[in-house]
Design goal:
The chain is α/β, with parallel strands linked by helices. The protein folds into two domains: 5-140 and 259-304, Rossmann fold (3-Layer(aba) Sandwich); 144-255, Rossmann fold (3-Layer(aba) Sandwich). It is 43% helix and 18% strand. The chain has eleven helices and eleven strands. It has helices at 18-31, 42-48, 81-93, 105-116, 141-162, 177-185, 200-212, 230-241, 261-279, 299-304, 311-320; strands at residues 5-10, 35-39, 51-53, 98-103, 121-125, 165-170, 190-192, 218-223, 245-249, 284-290, 293-298. The strands form two sheets. Strands 3-2-1-4-5-10-11 form a seven-stranded mixed β-sheet, with helices on both faces. A four-stranded parallel β-sheet has the order 7-8-6-9, sandwiched between helices. Bound molecules: 6-O-phosphono-beta-D-fructofuranose. 6-O-phosphono-beta-D-fructofuranose is lined by residues 13, 104, 127-129, 171-173, 224, 255.
């Protein structure tokens, strides 16, 4: 039987472009003659029955906004047997035929659990971390990288003015992509990511080499999941070279802000595709982008995939510094 009513939620850490994805889901659903509900506060809203009917106007003036108009949460209730059961009951009582989940790894795993209990779900990659292996890009990553590049540009100025070592910590959980992409794009001197092993002596030597070569600044870009913390790097530099450093933790600044054009377009394409796929009867899928094509694949398989090696980019960062 053809689906009649779908719902959409955003879950986990918000990411710029989530609103563009919600908008695309709602408007594509309406264009297909479906009823569309928004679920507020992610899986917590599913447990609590926070379903709101969406119309075209409810998603206007939204494409350019960061955050998520449906709000988000990291729901503990949904992880319990009782909460999960309540979520299933809510989906049934609101007669939802298909659910679109926009979120990162944990959120898509929640979607898979729902799928295993008979709910038709389409997972859309929404996280700044870019840590979902099945897709080239996640919604929000590009904006976060641009935010980081802009901040690192400011730090470069003051680093050069004082001849000071600047250590910047960027987000990404266990994934180094934000640090790697932003580090290369902002001409970082040393990029430290979880995907590589490092020797602290090498890091300190490179700082001295840069200084001796006449560089005024020294920018060390560190992913939050990297083998050395910013504090450890600062201490080692101080101890082994006598040079002073300052640490900037960019933090949640990276999660907000108006989404880049790339993220708006990506989110719009993914959102529309997710609705089309559910309408075609697909049941447990992850929607992503590969080689600029939007595609879907089995959700369980998508979550099993290993992230690609970043050898080429890591090497590039080392050569261009
Ligand atoms: O997954 C997005 C992310 O911003 C990660 O980069 C970071 O490790 C984490 O969320 C921070 O989570 P919270 O906002 O709950 O502290």
């Amino acid at each position: 039987m053809a689906i009649q009513r779908i719902a959409v939620l955003t879950s986990g850490g918000d990411s710029p472009g989530m609103n563009a994805a919600i908008r695309a889901v709602v408007r594509t659903g309406l264009a297909r003659g479906l009823e569309v509900y928004g679920v507020r506060h992610g899986y917590q809203g599913l447990v609590d029955g926070e379903f709101i009917p969406m119309d075209s106007v409810s998603v206007s003036d939204m494409i350019q906004r960061g955050g998520t108009g449906l709000f988000t949460a990291r729901s503990k209730d949904f992880m319990t047997e009782e909460g999960f059961h309540r979520a299933l009951m809510m989906l049934e009582s609101f007669k939802i035929d298909g659910l679109i989940v926009i979120g990162g790894d944990g959120s898509l795993r929640g979607a898979l659990d729902l799928a295993k209990n008979g709910i038709a779900v389409a997972g859309l990659p929404g996280t700044i971390d870019n840590d979902l292996a099945y897709t080239d890009y996640t919604i929000g990553f590009d904006t976060a990288v641009n935010t980081a590049v802009s901040a690192i540009g400011n730090l470069r100025d003051t680093s050069s003015a004082h001849g000071m070592v600047t250590i910047v910590e960027l987000m990404g959980r266990h994934c180094g992509d934000i640090a790697l992409f932003a580090g290369i794009a902002s001409g970082g001197d040393i990029i430290v990511v979880p995907e590589k092993e490092y020797d602290m002596d090498d890091i300190c030597r490179q700082v001295v080499e840069g200084h001796n070569a006449g560089k005024l600044h020294c920018l060390i870009i560190v992913a939050e999941g990297a083998p050395f913390s910013c504090a450890e790097i600062r201490e080692a530099i101080q101890e082994r070279t006598g040079m002073e450093s300052r640490i900037t933790v960019l933090g949640h600044v990276q999660r907000g802000g108006s989404p880049s054009a790339f993220d708006r377009l990506l989110a719009s394409r993914l959102g529309a595709y997710g609705v089309d796929a559910l309408a075609e009867g697909k049941k447990a899928i992850a929607v992503g982008i590969r080689n600029n094509e939007i595609f879907d694949m089995d959700l369980a398989e998508a979550l099993e995939m290993k992230r690609p090696e970043r050898t080429e980019l890591i090497r590039l960062g080392e050569i261009l510094r």
